[in-house]
Give the backbone structure.
Amino acid sequence: MRGYTGDKDAYLKRLRRIEGQIRGLQRMVEDDVYCIDVLTQISAATKALQSVSLGLIDEHLKHCVTEAIAEGGDTATEKVREASEAIARLVRS
């Protein structure tokens, strides 16, 4: 079971909302909407994706990493490394 399984429906709902935002962005570009308005909506979609990402990282740390640390050994080291790399990717984006 994944760490986010308990909140899976909420994550799916949020991702569908973001999908709608992206479709809206496509329509804005097709309709030649003012650049700044498109950029504003891109910023909103980006923040929404970042929010989902932060929630998933939190769930990963609480569930997957915590379990791995309890097991110890190479599994723990690998899960901590994965989490660190994922956080680094988010910070760079």
